[in-house]
């Protein structure tokens, strides 16, 4: 395989920061925890906390084993306006943005949790449909009203000291992936970073207090 072209300085490694949105009654979290057949997540993803860098508003949907994602690139100022319920000063609609805003309106969703991790991503050299990612240093924090980096991150006990491997493909997967799974005795497990982040933040009085202040500011 070859490194993902988005890696830093030609490597396969880069940071991922996702701000997840949910309703006041945690409906998205509850669907995820229950393993609902049809569910989705709302998130704003960025790769640095530089105010000049964009954010990507995403809806990640799932029905059974099938998953797909819509995405819209916006400025930090536009994202902040959307999360605060204000009309953005600059507006350019797109199918991805419309899908995101539709779900935000339906759920009355707003920022609930940051999740950050380091990702190593690899693509098939032959131009195939396989992507392999390794995520570690997974941590979480309450939302920040100005979309800045949180002052403190909390580890996720479920994966502390571990690496999360994801094998992603479209259509049918090549035979070598099945060989790899058998060779190393890999077991498929559900791993929702958002669900575990909410468990941590709701279980920590300090983190919950910070989240309440962030939500009020937003």
Features:
218 residues; mRNA Triphosphatase Cet1, Chain A; alpha+beta; globular; 9-stranded antiparallel beta sheet
Task: Outline the biggest β-sheet.
Answer: 9 strands, antiparallel
How many separate structural domains? 1
CATH architecture: Alpha-Beta Barrel
Instruction: Tell me the helix content.
Output: 25-40%
Strand content: 25-35%
Number of strands: 9
- CATH level-4 homologous superfamily: VTC, catalytic tunnel domain
How far the N terminus sits from the C terminus, by CA atoms, comes to: 43 Å
The succession of helices and strands, N to C, reads EEHEEEHHEEEEHHH
Low-confidence stretches: 212-218
Number of helices: 6
Radius of gyration: 18 Å
Could you characterize what this model shows?
With 218 residues, the chain is an alpha+beta fold. It has one domain: mRNA Triphosphatase Cet1, Chain A (Alpha-Beta Barrel). Helices cover 28% and strands 33% of the residues. It contains 6 helices and 9 strands. Strands 1, 2, 3, 4, 5, 6, 7, 8 and 9 form a 9-stranded antiparallel beta sheet that branches. A hairpin with a 6-residue loop joins strand 6 and strand 7. Helix 5 packs across helix 6.
Structure summarized in a few sentences:
With 218 residues, the chain is an alpha+beta fold.
């Amino acid at each position: 395989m070859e490194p993902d072209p988005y890696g830093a300085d030609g490597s396969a490694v880069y940071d991922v920061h996702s701000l997840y949105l949910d309703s006041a009654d945690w409906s998205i979290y509850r669907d995820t925890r229950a393993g609902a057949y049809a569910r989705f997540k709302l998130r704003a993803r960025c790769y640095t906390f530089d105010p000049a860098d964009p954010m990507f508003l995403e809806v990640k949907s799932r029905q059974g084993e099938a998953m797909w994602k819509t995405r819209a690139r916006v400025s930090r100022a536009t994202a902040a306006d959307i999360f605060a319920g204000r009309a953005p000063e600059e507006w350019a609609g797109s199918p991805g943005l419309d899908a995101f805003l539709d779900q935000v309106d339906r759920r009355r969703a707003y920022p609930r949790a940051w999740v950050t991790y380091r990702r190593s991503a690899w693509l098939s050299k032959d131009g195939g449909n396989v992507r392999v990612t390794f995520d570690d240093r997974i941590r979480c924090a309450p939302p920040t009203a100005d979309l800045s980096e949180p002052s403190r991150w909390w580890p996720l006990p479920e994966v502390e000291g571990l690496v999360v491997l994801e094998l992603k493909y479209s259509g049918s997967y090549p035979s070598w992936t099945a060989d790899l799974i058998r060779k190393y005795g890999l077991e498929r497990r559900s791993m929702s970073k958002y669900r575990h982040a909410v468990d941590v933040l709701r279980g920590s009085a300090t983190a919950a207090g910070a989240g309440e202040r962030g939500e009020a500011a937003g």
